[in-house]
Amino acid sequence: MSWSDSFSQTYVDPQHLIEAEQQVEVFMGIILKACQDKCIPIKYHEPDLNKGEQKCIDRCVAKYISIQTMLGEKMRHMAPQPQNDNSYSSSFS
Hints:
The protein is mainly alpha-helical. Helices cover 72% and strands 0% of the residues. The longest helix is centred in the C-terminal third of the chain and has 28 residues, at 51-78. Pfam families: zf-Tim10_DDP.
C-alpha cells in the first residue's frame, strides 16, 4: 500500500464536514422548534411554565439528547478509521 492510498482513506474533506454540521444544526433546529410549538402555547397567561409544559419540555430535551447521541454514534462508525500499518517500521528493523 502506498502512502497516497493510506492518506486518501483517512482524509475527510473539510467542506463535507461543514455541510454535515450545517445539516445537523438545521435538523436539530427543526426538532427544537417543533418541541417549542408543541409544549409552549403562543398565548400564555403565567410567566412560569406549568407542570405539563415542564414535563413536555423535559421529554423533548430527552429526545433531543437521544437523537444527538444516535447521530454521534452513527457518524463515529462512518468516520474513516486510522490504519496502524507497521509495515514501514518493520521493513527497517
